[in-house]
Amino acid sequence: MSALAAADVGQLLQLVPVQRAGVALLVAAVGLPVIGVVIVGLDIMPVRFAMMHVALLGIAVGLLTGLDPMLCALVACALAGAGVAPLARTPDGLSGAMGLLMSLAIAAALLVLAVSGVNAAGAFSLLWGSILSVGTADLWLLVALAVVVPALFWWRRRDIALLLYDRELALSSGVRVDRLTLVLLVLVAVSVAGAIKLTGALLVDALTLLPALAARRLGRSLLSITAWAVGIGVAVNLTGFLVALRFDWPPGPVLVLTAGVVVLAVHLVPERRISSWRAPASASLPSSH
Amino acid sequence: MEGLDVRMSGVVCRHGRVEAVRDVDLDIARGQRVALTGTNGSGKTTLLRAVLGLHRHVAGRILVGGRDTGSAAGWAWRRQACAWIPQKPATGRFPLLGRELLASGGARAEAVEAAGKLGVGHLADRPLHTLSGGQLQRMYLARAVGCVAAGAGVLLADEPTAALDFSGQEEAADVLLSLPVTVVVVTHDRALAERCDRVLEMAAGRLREVR
Q1: CB contact under 8 A, B133 and A222
Q2: Structural domain contains residue A273
Q3: How large is the ipTM?
Q4: Domain-by-domain residue ranges, chain B?
């Protein structure tokens, strides 16, 4: 039975769309969890929902004007990311802004769709990708993200670490906070919108947010969190994909569930480790507590 | 005498409709050590934050080293010229290591050396959120030493000894007052205030000279 199943997976892996999906997931696991680290660090978890709606608005505008709808969607997301950047000045500004953005974008999208007479479901379907239908161009986009995002993180690691720790400390350390926040938000917005198109909306969480949430508990610094996020992303994607192939289940839910199990597991495990970090501190300088 | 002078004229800071700082005029000569005292909520922290551009609703004029801040480059210069020890060091949304904090002042080696003298050198590889309040305050003080080594001419210290024990307060005061810069220190610590050249008091947003 298991030999037969293994052979099935082996045969499936001979298929070009399956091979491409596997490679896409592997490449996505390098770039997208790093984006997830920014999402967690800037506390903008609802960004995926906000970008889905902004992208829909972009598609609606594209359909109305005759321009490429997906290009319009990406530009709309980039502009929305840049537009909310000034709200990062207050601690809760960005998380609230994502909710506002979501509401405004869906209202504007529905209005534009109604005015243009385009079917809303048809517009939405343009946004819905699947990992098994990833094309060569999509794959290259994921490769570009896998190179650009970690490279930016490495290049600006000091500034990003300070910004994600405390905006005011970053400011007083000479970090151009407004510019860096803008770049990060545009990158997040475009990556999330692009990933929704490439992999489907559900899978975006498994690829971005969930590895970062698990890594946030395991890492002790920005670099170690980022490394954990990428490692967990690769492990989850490979495991989830093989399980999905083995049982002939849809990859999206299997990958999300696999990543979710990892997040739950690390939330149970590392508490003891965190406590053990604190113990020597209190022993060394008890009077300063 | 080293350091930079600080001049304020007609400075008003608002928190919404509330005037936290009212019409403050102040001249601090280079190298002077000034203690800023006063009750909680009298506007001391807001005034210090206004110098760094961290408080946004500010009217009036603040010059450091004779320079105003009209542009992003102007603010960049100001923040490099003024080392800052915050009142409540952020515990952070994301982990930051002690050595990353020390390096952020611009002179890693000097900050690490100061951290060693202040008894927190061995905590450099620990995330800041795992440190106690006193340890964190010593780390920020060591960072400020690094800022001065990197060229800052003013130190704005906001209750830098509040979380320290008695010997720690004295040690921190020694470090603060030995720096070759202009020092403005918000404090409730009488011993520290006594050691400063001038003592100012804020009450309901207004500033008066005590000594």
Answers
A1: no
A2: no
A3: 0.91
A4: 6-89+148-209
What digits encode the pLDDT tens for the residues A226-273?
A: 999 999 999 999 999 999 888 888 888 888 899 999 999 988 875 655
Q: Is residue A217 part of a domain?
A: yes
Of B93, B138, B163, the CB nearest to A165: B93
Tell me the average pLDDT across A85-100.
77
**Residue contact A172–B132, C-beta within 8 A:** no
pTM of the entire structure?
0.86
| CATH assignment at residue A167 | 1.10.3470.10
CA atoms within 13 A on the CB side of A7: 4
**Interface of chain B against chain A, CB under 8 Å?**
52-54, 56, 72, 76, 79-80, 82, 84, 86, 90, 92-97, 100-101, 103-106, 119-120, 122-123, 126-128, 130-135, 138, 163-165, 167-168
Look at A27-41, A197-211, B189-203 and tell me which has the smallest mean pLDDT: A197-211
Chain B residues with beta carbon closer than 8 angstroms to that of A165: 90, 92-96, 128
Angle formed by the axes of helices A251-268 and A209-218, to 10°?
20
Q: Which residues contact A184 (CB under 8 A, 6 or more apart)?
A: A38, A42, A160, A163
A3: in domain? no
Biggest CA pair distance of chain B = 46
Q: Determine the topology of domain B6-89+148-209 in CATH.
A: Rossmann fold (3.40.50)
Could you tell me the residue range of the domain that residue A151 belongs to? 11-267
Amino acid, res. A269? V
